[in-house]
Amino acid sequence: MRIFDPHIHMTSRTTEDYERMYSAGVRALVEPSFWLGQPRTSVGTFCDYFDAILGWEPFRASQFGIAHFATIGLNPKEANDPRCREVLDVLPRYLEKDRVVAVGELGYDSMTPEEEEVFEAQLALAVTHELPALVHTPHRDKLAGTRRTIDVVNASGLEPGRVLVDHLNEVTVGEVAGSGCWMGFSIYPDTKMDPHRMVAILKEYGLERIVVNSAADWGRSDPLLTLRTGEAMRAAGFSVDDVDRVLWRNPVEFYRQSGRLEIDDLDETVGAVAGATFEGNSVLRGSRD
Ligand SMILES: [Zn+2]
């Protein structure tokens, strides 16, 4: 089974996770820029973070045989903090970088006017930079948030087929299915969406425009829940080809719209730099010696 995790925050994960993911079949992933838990107080800390997920983290992933891409944006939660507004000014520079395959993650957290303004501004950047957009849906008031998300996407001029609306569930999937946007599902170890509920959604809605991710981060999460979903699909009668479509070909198709997903070169990229160093650091040795 080959797996492309279209939404995972590797900055928050260990090298052991990379090893387990590789063993499970993960060969490529997308790391969206997001909220780090601790509020950031200036634009400089965002720049360092963006540089890390475009520099150090792809290097670290490559040491474990996994191709690493990123999405860049001002996350919904920090869109409410006036100290972070300046991030919008530095985004154009980052959106031109090679490994950036979408603007994101964007969207609503608490559905404030500030969030909406920042969401709209970043969808406009996606249009200008000819990039797809990765859109987060709120965990509270999910249905209203998803409906409002679709309205804002429709008003943005960005083609729905270039938008991935993420963190969906049984309540919100119908809204997005009819919109033409891609549907993203984050599989969690406890509440929210699990592999069996995901299989039920695939049975009902089919495989088109659907991607599955682990959204693993610094919270309770599991980077192997993509694999577990593939296993649950097989147990429920889906074919090997169906699983490959959901866990590999669909995310490739979505992010390839960026023109930057060097997936044909993947086999050569992967594992090619074992033993290399990044600015003098070798992650395999685990230190700065
Ligand atoms: Zn995320």
UniProtKB/TrEMBL annotation:
<dbReference type="GO" id="GO:0046872">
    <property type="term" value="F:metal ion binding"/>
</dbReference>
<dbReference type="InterPro" id="IPR012022">
    <property type="entry name" value="UCP005295"/>
</dbReference>
<dbReference type="GO" id="GO:0016788">
    <property type="term" value="F:hydrolase activity, acting on ester bonds"/>
</dbReference>
<keyword id="KW-0378">Hydrolase</keyword>
<comment type="similarity">
    <text>Belongs to the metallo-dependent hydrolases superfamily.</text>
</comment>
<dbReference type="Pfam" id="PF01026">
    <property type="entry name" value="TatD_DNase"/>
</dbReference>
<keyword id="KW-0479">Metal-binding</keyword>
<dbReference type="InterPro" id="IPR032466">
    <property type="entry name" value="Metal_Hydrolase"/>
</dbReference>
<protein>
    <submittedName>
        <fullName>TatD family hydrolase</fullName>
    </submittedName>
</protein>
<dbReference type="InterPro" id="IPR001130">
    <property type="entry name" value="TatD-like"/>
</dbReference>
